[in-house]
Amino acid sequence: MKYSILELASVAAGSTPKQTFNNSLILAQQAEKLGYHRFWLAEHHNTVSIASSATAVLIGHIAQGTERIRVGSGGIMLPNHAPLIVTENFATLSALYPDRIDLGLGRAPGTDQATAHAIRPDRTHSVYNFPEEITQIQKYCAPDNANASVRVPIAEGIRLPIYILGSSTDSAWLAAKRGLPYAFASHFAPNQLHEALGIYHNHFQPSAQLQAPYTIACVNVIAADSDAAAETLSTSLIRMVLGILTNKRDFLQAPGPFTPELKALLVEPAFQQFLKYAFIGGPQLVKQKTRQFVEQTGVDELMVVSSMFHLQDRLRSFELFSEIMQELQTDPVA
Prior knowledge:
The protein is of the alpha/beta class and 334 residues long. The protein contains 13 helices and 10 strands. Strands 1-2-3-5-6-7-8-10 form an 8-stranded parallel β-barrel, surrounded by 8 helices. Strand 6, helix 7 and strand 7 (182-184) form a beta-alpha-beta unit. Helix 1 (17-34) runs parallel beside helix 13, helix 7 packs parallel to helix 8 (193-203) and helix 12 (283-297) packs across helix 13 (311-330).
């Protein structure tokens, strides 16, 4: 089973976007050494805690500083952008870094509605046209588009795999119908994961890109050398989730004591839903949770996201998770 990383480029309190981007590159370089398959960057806007707004630019930054790992978008929120510009950006990246660039596409705004309107005033119309805009990108990338009146010459015939991202069953139907790989955002929207995977597998139609279903699921992972250490590190994630749920977002905070107040938050239904697939603990506990998740979902690839304050803690967490995945290869799930 492949394992990969979703990078939010979270900005820690007291840090800068520059430091955040440098840390993302260090993480990608280490991930490449540890056997991670791909390194995707998300698209978010108008939030101080996430710096991955110019996603294509960051993909170039990461691809330039690595050699083999696949780099892509998890995802580009297509209704925010003109399909022609998306094609030009990603075809250029693919020309610079052949057979390493992925184009993951979603339809959510990645921000609040006011900001979404500022990005693209006709966005609501584009949301409904999401399937057609995917078709447009595929058309720009087709070799036979050379005779069209509107072209992206650099894209014609280029190898640029498209992935459909989603957090609901709507995206599952679309990915199945188009015969495209499907990535589910179960790290923050777990409720429809199993239903969406079932729809995708049951209704999948082969395509030129993909002959059989291929699924990716994203989970939160905070692994440390002990359960207690991981619990302490998770306090940064808990405070981040609290900011999201109360609409009081702030920079990623340093870890601290696991107080009774934080423990009380975790029993709240909104927290339990958000963090349903948060694997927090030492190696054995994270391995147990990972094995159970893979057995229950049957996904082809795991993508992990970690909201941790210190770079060294993140590097250690991804090192431990790589070891866990390698152990599961030799001791496979049922």
